[in-house]
Amino acid sequence: MKISYYLAFAAAAIACNANHVAEPAGYSYPVTQVREDQFAFKTVLDTGDYKIKVIGIDHPTAQELVVHISGGNKLLSEIRRTVTGRLSTAFTGDLNADGQPELYVLSRESADSTALMAFSIAGDSLTEIALPAKKTGSRSAFEITTDHIIETITNKNGDTEKWILSLSPQGNVIRKIA
Q1: Contact 79/90 with Cβ under 8 angstroms?
Q2: In which region does residue 176 sit, left (phi positive, over 0), alpha (psi from -120 to 50) or beta (all else)?
């Protein structure tokens, strides 16, 4: 009898903790425990072969990016990242021309600065594409074309630089263009 009481108490404590909002840094909420009206951002993209669900979940100090890739009715991959700023848009493309889609997610860090995250989708895996680190104290804006990404960086003094990122199956190439 005492054992069943303690088990019931432990189960109630776990259930209460699952809905607790202020968890330590790095804690990841299962999407099933978050109501859809709590999503700060949600979009579903369809590439034909893949259905991609991109979700932004607000937490007290940051926003969490959750990406689900499914094929047919089967979940193939999930990625979770803490993001700076607020998710603003997500889209797919094949900038590296390898026949497999990439996912691009933009987040607004401030009124005049945007961050870009990119993921490669192949088979049942989703991997993050390494992009150059943003310079401290600068603002970034991105332009996506059919075969590359142009980043305009504005420093504290208002000076701008343009960098082009060309993605390819052989490797990414970054070069300054202005």
Answers
A1: no
A2: beta
Check pLDDT > 80 for residue 56.
yes
Interval 95-137: pLDDT, tens? 877 888 889 998 888 777 788 888 988 888 888 887 766 666 6
Is residue 141's pLDDT more than 90? Answer: no
Q: How far is CA 174 from the centre of its chain?
A: 22
Strand partners, 103: 92, 119
Sheet holding 63-71, edge to edge: 39-46, 51-58, 63-71, 74-83
Reported for 27-35, long-range contacts at CB under 8 A and 24+ positions apart, including other chains, are: 28/64, 28/80, 29/57, 29/59, 29/64, 31/55, 31/57, 31/66, 31/68
Rg of the Cα atoms in the chain: 20
Tokens of residue 176, six digits: 């300054």
Distances (CA, A) of 163 to 61, 86, 144: 31, 24, 12
Closest C-alpha to 121, from 162, 70, 173, 65: 70
Q: Which residue has the tokens 């700023």?
A: 85
Residues in a beta bridge with 90:
105
CB of 99 closer than 8 Å to CB of 119:
no
